[in-house]
Structures are given as structure tokens and as C-alpha cells.
UniProtKB/TrEMBL annotation:
GO terms for molecular function: metalloendopeptidase activity. Coiled coil: none annotated. It holds the Pfam family PLAC. This is ADAMTS-like 7. GO terms for biological process: extracellular matrix organization; proteolysis. One of its GO terms (cellular component) is extracellular matrix. Its main location: secreted. It is found in: Secreted. The gene is ADAMTSL7. Keywords: Repeat, Secreted, Signal. Residues 237-274 form the PLAC domain. InterPro entries: ADAMTS_ADAMTS-like, PLAC, TSP1_rpt, TSP1_rpt_sf.
């Protein structure tokens, strides 16, 4: 197999002027007579890397800043003007290496736009809190007409600023999307007082602003119906309904309670039997 040859005719530069970067070089497969041939003719396991990492040392940092803004914040009198200030890596090796440890350059300075000659302007206060904790709401701020002079400010009637665009005194706001929760009423009365009934309640999914919503978790939905009054019904006892025959259990077993004579003679036993039959039919 033929050897790989590294082209050292040019000194590769690191891709970064400081810090970590990469540099590349040309690697060729060369024949015995010095000609370039396909890489496959050389042992690929011995192929030198054509890209390697390089470290140019720590990057120095310096303060970078823009020119001062041409316009003062005040149309007259004292105001401020600003500029952008950033701490960035520098690529000039002759700059000092102390970085941005020195005092940060000012990003604002006082400016004077000349004397105020009773300038009239609209002035606004801060926005109030949003009227709704979630969903659409509104917020307000005060808007007043002021005359600015070297002595200070004077409140003016609104018509004095009528030639100027009046700032908004109210705007819409939406702090967050309203969540949704399950709400339910109290349970209704049980449909029966004994022998098993049911009761119901109304369940609704409502957003924070009490509007109907589909955003509730169905797995957490409260039940709307449940069983109630499972205890057996106690039959009404007639004090005059008594057994007058000592062996009324035989009358019941013989199913003689269908006859009026035995209904009267064995009133208590026949009444209990009739109640049991009614309860059994109700359960089935």
C-alpha cells in the first residue's frame, strides 16, 4: 500500500482568533513516483486527520459602545440621551487583557434641548392593574395636558392640547388564559326514603370568568348520580292489626292470606308476608 502525504506548503490558520477553533490541512495518497492517486490505494487506517482542534489562548474582552443618540429625550429643557454598551470578546491582540473589569462606561448622559418656551404636551401616568385576573380585561391610565416651562409644569385644560394626538387612556389586557374547574350543586333529595333510591346533582365545567368551558379533565369529573336510602322500609303498624290465632305461621305457609277471613284472623302475620312480597318484587 502507498503512504499518505500531508501537504505542508501552506501553514493552516485556526478558525478562531482566540479561544477554541479548528484548522484543516490537505492529505493526499501519493504513488511511488509522487503522483496523487485515489485514497483507496492507501491504507485508510493510517490516514492522518485533515481537521484538528486548535486553542489560540484566552479571548480578551473589551467594552464596546455605540455613538451617543443624536436626539435628547426632552424637546426642551433637561433630558437624557443614551448609547448601547456591551462587553464582548475582542480580536485585537494589542488591546489590554484586563477585560471588562474596569468601570462600565456610562450608557446615558444629561442633555439640554434649550429653554422651554411654555411647551404644551400630553403627559401620561402609569397603567393600572388589569381588571381581570385572567382572560380579557382592561386597564386605565391618567392623561393630562401640561405646559412645561423652565419653572416646572402647569396643568392645562384638555382643549389646549387638542392639536396634538391624545395618548390612549384605556387599553385591553390579558394576563393569562383562564383555567377551568368542575363545579357542582348540592345533592337533591333521595328519590325514595327506604329500600334503595337515588339522588342527583348538576355538574358544570366553568372557566375562571364563569363561562362554560371544555377545558376540564374528564377523569376528575364529579359523579352526577348516586344511590341512597338502602335501609329496608318499616311497614306501617296498625295497632288493631293483631294475630287472633295461635298458629298463624301455618296460615302464612299454606298461603291462606288471600282469603279475607285469614287476613283478619292473622292480620299481623299476613301483613308482614305481603310487605316481604312487595319488597322482593321491587328489587327484582
Amino acid at each position: 500500500l502507498k503512504p499518505f502525504v500531508v501537504d505542508c506548503s501552506s501553514s493552516p490558520q485556526c478558525s478562531a482568533p482566540c479561544g477554541l477553533g479548528q484548522r484543516s490541512r490537505e492529505v493526499h495518497c501519493v504513488s511511488n513516483v509522487g503522483d496523487f492517486v485515489l485514497d483507496e490505494e492507501c491504507n485508510m487506517n493510517l490516514r492522518p486527520a485533515d481537521v484538528e482542534n486548535c486553542d489560540m489562548g484566552a479571548c480578551a474582552k473589551s467594552w464596546f459602545y455605540t455613538e451617543w443618540a443624536n436626539k435628547c429625550s426632552a424637546e426642551c429643557g433637561m433630558g437624557v440621551r443614551s448609547r448601547g454598551v456591551l462587553c464582548l470578546n475582542n480580536h485585537i491582540s494589542s488591546l489590554p487583557l484586563e477585560g471588562c473589569g474596569s468601570e462600565r462606561p456610562a450608557d446615558s448622559q444629561v442633555c439640554n434641548s434649550g429653554p422651554c418656551e411654555n411647551a404644551i404636551e400630553w403627559f401620561t401616568g402609569p397603567w393600572s392593574q388589569c381588571s381581570a385576573e385572567c382572560g380579557p380585561g382592561s386597564q386605565q391610565r391618567s392623561v393630562v395636558c401640561l405646559m412645561k416651562s423652565d419653572e416646572g409644569f402647569t396643568l392645562m385644560p384638555p382643549y389646549e392640547c387638542s392639536s396634538l394626538d391624545r395618548p390612549l387612556g384605556q387599553q385591553s389586557c390579558n394576563l393569562k388564559v383562564c383555567g377551568a374547574k368542575w363545579y357542582h350543586t348540592d345533592w337533591s333529595s333521595c328519590s325514595k326514603t327506604c329500600e334503595g333510591g337515588f339522588r342527583v346533582r348538576e355538574v358544570r365545567c366553568l372557566s375562571d370568568d364563569t363561562l362554560s368551558s371544555e377545558g376540564c379533565d374528564e377523569q376528575l369529573r364529579p359523579v352526577e348520580r348516586e344511590d341512597c336510602s338502602p335501609e329496608p322500609c318499616t311497614p306501617h303498624v296498625d295497632e288493631n292489626c293483631r294475630d287472633q290465632y295461635f298458629n298463624c305461621n301455618v296460615v302464612v305457609q299454606a298461603r291462606l292470606c288471600v282469603y279475607d277471613y285469614y287476613k283478619t284472623t292473622c292480620c299481623a302475620s299476613c301483613s308482614r308476608m305481603a310487605h316481604k312480597q312487595t319488597a322482593h318484587r321491587g328489587r327484582s
